[in-house]
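Morning F.,

Quick status update on the modeling queue. The single chain you submitted on Monday has been processed. Sequence for confirmation:
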Amino acid sequence: MNRVVSLIYFLLMATAAMAQPISFESKMEEYNLIDIQSLDSTILVELKYSTTDNFVGEDMYGELEKAYFVKSFADRVVIAQRILKSRHPEYTLLIYDATRPISVQRHMRKIVEGTEFEGFVADGTRGGRHNYGVAVDLTIATCDGTPLDMGAGFDDFSDAASVKGTPDSSDPKTRTLDIYRRHAHQQVERGIITLEAAENRLLLIEVMLEAGLYPYRREWWHFEEIISITETRSKYKLVDF
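Structure tokens below.
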């Protein structure tokens, strides 16, 4: 009888444990990822996928509120913050997205399948840079958290969000500040974004470039290392939970 009771108790406890939601923060730490604010508390974090203020309109992260990265990548973001602060003490970086578990990537893709957004979301088969802890979505804000005008919102997939007209490569010569500046000025001339928005974007790009991070051509908010996705997958570990 005692064995039966013990077995029932064990099964109940196991079922309860399985029902508990995944603790994203503890899992991130298991992967040796770093909370960016543990390195620099002046960097602001507002994870858009921990809210419904994103293009899928769904909270994807639950209670996760911290931005985690591979340590070497986090160090670059901190450098960018220091550069920004040295030139504009009234400004700060504001992070919208950081490391994204591959399970979230797959769920996100499932939501958008068959919609106009399907082509903008990787299917999660092998994972993109966010799924390896080496991509950041961010903007510049005032110290009270008010974002600067960048000419297009986060998760805007129109031409207004682009920062470059030609495909990205791993050659730094194809991803210089002058190239981004020319594209921004063309957008201003075409009436796509304002001069103020262009200047704000270029400031963000400038400090990130100096820290060794490059924008993705279709998203002014997304920055990454200038290495191929193949090298990314061989160099870093997929955040697989």
